[in-house]
């Protein structure tokens, strides 16, 4: 089971505003903060997400093929998360809509270029 996912950032303040807004929409908040990073989630809940300036001091970079999926409660929340992301400097990687028979998702990148999606399973796998 995944406990949390960490993504790199080169601008913690900008990234914090982006993820604070997504976390608020998902009904959670910050659970840990330190000078070089922040983590969002609910202790004892599902997997959290963290942002950190790389420990080695080199610039953060995006992993090709890496994506973090944010589970939404309904299609409307998929749309809201997508809209929040784009309004805070995120970029579109695929607008909200069905992906196959039982999956509804929107894809976007955060201001550092990390790929995320908001999704909803709409039926059995």
From TrEMBL:
Gene3D superfamilies: 2,3-Dihydroxybiphenyl 1,2-Dioxygenase, domain 1. CDD domains: VOC_like. Residues 1-121 form the VOC domain. It comes from the Bacteria. Transmembrane segments: none annotated. It holds the Pfam family Glyoxalase. This is Glyoxalase. It comes from Niveispirillum lacus.
